[in-house]
Amino acid sequence: MNKNVLEISGVSVEQLAATCKTPLYVYDENKIRQQLSMYHELFQSKDFDTEVLYASKAFSCKAMVELVKTYGLSLDVVSGGELFTAYQAGFPMERVYFHGNNKSYEELEMAVKYGVGTIIIDNDMECDALVSIMKNAGTSIKTMLRVNPGVEAHTHKYIVTAHVDSKFGISILREQEIADMIHKLTSIPNITFEGFHSHIGSQIFDKEAYVAEIGNLCEFMKIMQERFGITCSSLNLGGGFAAYYTQADHPIPLQDVCKTILDTCKAQKEACGLSFHKVMIEPGRSIVAEAGSTLYRIGYQKQTENKKYLFVDGGMSDNIRPALYQAEYACDIANRMNEEKTEKVTVAGKCCESGDILVEDVMLPEAKQNDLLIIYTTGAYGYSMASNYNKLGKPAVVFVKDGVVRVVVKRESYQDMNAMDCDEVVNV
User: Fold this and answer.
1) What backbone phi and psi angles, to 5 degrees, belong to 84?
2) Is 349 annotated as a binding residue?
3) Catalytic site residue 258?
4) 177 labelled as ligand-binding?
5) Annotation-wise, does 90 bind a ligand?
6) Among the options 61, 331, 352, 422, which is catalytic?
7) pLDDT confidence of residue 158
8) pLDDT tens by residue, 374-412
């Protein structure tokens, strides 16, 4: 074993790069399993039924869905594609929750056909669409209504989701509109209204944000109960649990955030005289982000007047977050782990965009062409937001566990990218 070469769960990055090529998404499967197990064990209460939903938008493939199933978590999906993946993986459909602000009629029909357990209603037009479908359905379905509690977690403006003008959900200030939607849903005998859903943002480092969210929601639920006679059995508090990217990040310990949520729910339920008996959360990023890394091979280097660039064989096509959110990452030269970091460099991708910067102004050892560079904490929203920009194929995804490597998503070839190209005349 060469201690200068990074190993992931017993496999060196040199072996991974030689066998599976680069760029490569690499997941330490033991870390995923550990997070799934911890959520399942820690989010338990003697006062409530509890349910943990994995937010599959963070990273979805059949192998990941199978792990979620193994550890007894439920699943949050936001599209027909994520729903189909769950169905193909044999996930229990009654434990699937279907989210989204603009579900198509076809997607809603698909959810009903597959036997999805719960649909999270986002708006009045979607409410009408589901009622129309369920009038002719021979099955039943549970629903929840997404509301905005007016709590803005301190995150990037593009990932704050609960302010009054958010594209998601309905403000809790719109009480009559919410009541009308619930009455519309419950007028259909095969639709059950379970309660309210909320999500206040991503990368939340302050547990008081959840305290505020629960307080606002329970006060709102009290009004709905007293004014409209609407009671709830369930409360879904969304996700937003943070992951560690750089030394500036200080995620709330999982045990602390779970305890804070459950204790606050108990206190607010009693204070407001509410009857809900089930509490749900939806972690995604915090389950997979730190388990995943992206492995690149360094190509050319360039010195400008003010910067030294290291170019890698991927870029914004496999990690759009730095360009989209100004997200920051840590990295290393993975085959020079013990060498002194003497150079300040900027790691840039090969895409034809000036904004294709992966890590800016980072100290690394002196790099050589064909060295391997690893960027940490790319397990969430790397693969799931990847694109074919510049006709770059999406990297393969591997799970590594105790020296065993599994390819769970194949590398996309040029032929794969062109497989859907056609020249067909259609009658219009």
Assistant:
1) -65, -40
2) no
3) no
4) no
5) no
6) 352
7) 36
8) 999 999 999 999 999 999 999 999 999 999 999 999 999
- What is the token pair recorded at 250? 């200080």
**Mean pLDDT, residues 233-242 taken together:** 96
381 labeled part of a ligand binding site: yes
The arithmetic mean of pLDDT across residues 189-217, rounded, is: 94
What are the angstrom distances between the C-alpha of 35 and each of 52, 67, 260, 369?
Answer: 12, 11, 18, 36
Please state the pTM of the whole predicted model: 0.95
Burial class (CB in 10 A: 0-12, 13-18, 19+), 295: buried
- Give the mean model confidence (pLDDT) for residues 364-379: 98
Q: Is 284 labelled as part of a ligand binding site?
A: yes
Query: Quick one: which of 198, 200, 217 has its CA closest to 122?
Result: 198
The answer to whether the CB of 246 falls within 8 A of the CB of 203 is no
Q: Is residue 41 helix, strand or coil?
A: helix
In whole numbers, what is the pLDDT of the chain averaged over residues?
Answer: 95
Kindly list the domain boundaries of the chain, sorted by start residue.
Answer: 7-23+292-378+395-414, 29-287
Tell whether 270 is in a known binding site: no
Q: How confident is the model at residue 153 (pLDDT cuts 50, 70, 90)?
A: low
Triad 313, 316, 319: Cα angle to 5°: 95
Give me the DSSP letters along 289-324: TTTEEEEEEEEEEEE-SS-EEEEES--TTT--HHHH
Tell me how crowded residue 82 is: count the other CB atoms within 10 A of its CB: 22
The alpha carbon of residue 323 and the mean position of all alpha carbons in its chain are separated, in whole angstroms, by 18
314 is in an annotated binding site: no
Decide: 305 and 254 in contact? Cβ < 8 Å.
no
Q: Is the distance from CB of 245 to CB of 14 less than 8 angstroms?
A: no
Question: Can you tell me the mean pLDDT for 414-421?
Answer: 96
Q: What is the pLDDT of residues 29-51, one digit of tens each?
A: 999 999 999 999 999 999 999 99
- Report the candidate in 175, 209, 196, 177 with the shortest Cα–Cα distance to residue 274: 196
Residue 156 pLDDT > 60: no
Q: Which helix (H) or strand (E) holds 18?
A: helix 13-20
Q: Is 329 annotated as a binding residue?
A: no
For domain 7-23+292-378+395-414, the question of CATH label 2.40.37.10 is answered with: yes
Angle at 307 between CA 303 and CA 311, to 5 degrees: 65
CATH for 29-287 (3.60.40.10, 2.40.10.240, 3.20.20.10, 1.10.1200.30)? 3.20.20.10
119 in Cβ contact with 141 (< 8 Å): yes
